Amino acid sequence: MTHLDDIVTRVILRAKLPGRKRGREVAEELRAHLDDLVEEMRSQGYDDEAAARMARMRFGEPQEIAAAFASVYAPERWARRIVQATLLCAASTMVVVVVVGTVQSIAAICAAQPILSTLREIYQEGFGFGAITAGYCSLYAGERLFPTSLAKAALPSVVLGLCLAAVFACAIPQHAALPLVAFACAASGRLLQRLEMPFLWLAGTALPLLIAWVLFGPLIPCWEFPWLVWLGLTISCKALREIVRLFERVLLADLA
Description:
The protein contains eleven helices and no strands. It has two domains: 70 residues, no CATH class; 181 residues, no CATH class. By secondary structure, it is mostly helical.
């Protein structure tokens, strides 16, 4: 790699361009511009080394150029991120609905109850589906924003959890506890999935549910620990983990 190539690389790495394709286009433009500067210096009688040095001087500081590119492409970069986040949340919600619905349907069949009986409280359960997705995806978003700090990574989940608590208290005041616990289970499950310890994350989906059960009693009309709820949460977190991995391989593969 020549020194001019190194300059282009430094600009591209700092420019936060929205996608590898855009990065390649800008890199080609910058390299062509540098080549034109070198040729111009050569036409004025400078040797190769002096021409390259003069071209670097006229090109400018890579940090300043990268900052200018980052500013210009900021709207496109944020638009891509919003679209990606929307797709991830939509796919995650669909997966949660399918998983929890399947678990409830199997439980209804085993209890010799009609499957349609699982739809009696679909309004309240809709909040639960959204809470599971929000808990898991908010923690994942924190990981991407603050990859080196576990405390900061949990901050988006904490803020969102407080906001959802206010929303649930107004929308479903008598049923707000269960979706909030589901939110906490999904977030803590994702948190423990970060650790290189197999099956430890299962405790993440169980612990908030257990604490709520001990402190406040049954969250659903039964005296036992809500195993069915835990099973749905656990399978959902496992499925969401695969969705996130697929998201990173497919949607984020084009990011610079």
